[in-house]
Amino acid sequence: MPASVLAMAEPGLGWGELRARLAAAFRPGEWGDAPPRAGDLGGARIAVEPGAPVLLSLREGLLFAHADTRPWGPGYHERAVAVLDALGDALPGGWREVHDPTGYYARRDRRALEGVFLRWACAGWNDEDRLARAAARGGAAREGGPAGSVSTPLGPRSLAWVVRTARALRRAVEEETRPLEPQARAAFLWWRASPDAFDWMQLGLAACARSAELARGGEGAAVRERALWCFESALLLDPGAPAVRAQLARLYGALGRSAEPPVRAAAGERRPRAPGAGPEALASRTEASGGAEGCPSAHSTALGARWRLLLPERLRRGCDPADGHEVFWDDRMTVRVTVERGAPTAFRPREQARRHLGLLPPAWREGAQVGFFAGGGAEGYLLEAPAGPGVHLVAGQVGRGDERVTFTVVARSAEARLHALRFGRGLRPLS
Prior knowledge:
Elements: E1 4-9, H1 15-23, E2 31-33, E3 42-46, E4 54-59, E5 62-68, H2 74-90, E6 97-99, H3 104-107, H4 110-125, H5 128-137, E7 149-152, E8 155-158, H6 159-175, H7 182-185, H8 197-214, H9 221-237, H10 245-254, H11 279-288, E9 298-303, E10 307-312, E11 316-319, E12 326-329, E13 333-340, H12 349-358, H13 362-366, E14 369-375, E15 378-388, E16 391-400, E17 403-411, H14 414-423, E18 428-429
Antiparallel strand pairs: 1-5, 1-6, 2-3, 3-4, 4-5, 7-8, 9-10, 10-18, 11-12, 12-13, 13-17, 14-15, 15-16, 16-17
Helix pairs in contact: 4-6, 5-6, 8-9, 9-10
């Protein structure tokens, strides 16, 4: 499945000046310098969370950008092309040449992009004789899978599961069905440009499989942290998503942290239900609710230099010139966030929550609810208070070391309130 996107430019600038121009096109946390390889004059990595970065290198006056989209899917491909757009706008003269075998860079046809990936996946997954031979050789058993299983990007899967997925892909190609049936979509790690709960679940399972491969060399901790972020993101977007709690329990244990339940829900909010044993459970759930395309979606957004958060993809982003707060908003919710560094005292969520409650008007304080959470090396609190007819205030803090993230959300609809209640748990350190 040759799906690598490669762009080339001849900017006529040294690496120092070129780096300054290009880095300014991205938010803190998205641009990262990379050690140049032999012969390179400079290199960088541009984050495309939660996937692999787009790689940049300057060699003999030519700038190259590369992204291998094969392991990911059309959602990652679309996001990688958006990175190329931002780079091209910042380059003197733009890109001289962009090679995209899917044709998406030139046409920007999302449905055609999906069709290309479906045909590639169908060709790769429908060789049943080859898959049966792989299962007989027991390759997946060496990864911890049962005898007769097949290695996939999601980890070992039964031959029957792989055959069902291959047949679903074939139906999707022959009938051009959209949205995909869940069994066909299970062949892809990242389908939508802004990952939904199904995508986050797939990405978490893939990270778990990768961490198992790295465990013997002691390199799996960072990948387990990524898997945890993915599973928690799925729960934030859809509390009913089967996030494989057995997997989560193992991840929490491997990372040496305790798993605290989500913030206490007010009346009417859904609780996460008991999950199934794997992606089949999520497939059956999304099929019953109209397909995986119906899952809510959100951006993983860089905040400051060292934090990321999940927000509904529809929100606009700006900065309040009066106080420097980051502001995200639409007609249903307004989010204000501040990142502070160099706190003089240790962050104690329970003490800070009591202090915060004391600042609320008495009428708000009487109906307020408070919850605490921890994860990703950070801990925090979240409080909710009624602030008028149909309006809810959701506020709190998250801290790690000497850093604090303070947030306030004004929610003006029931759907916005649910997003706001999940907001604090969506804040995570970038590293």
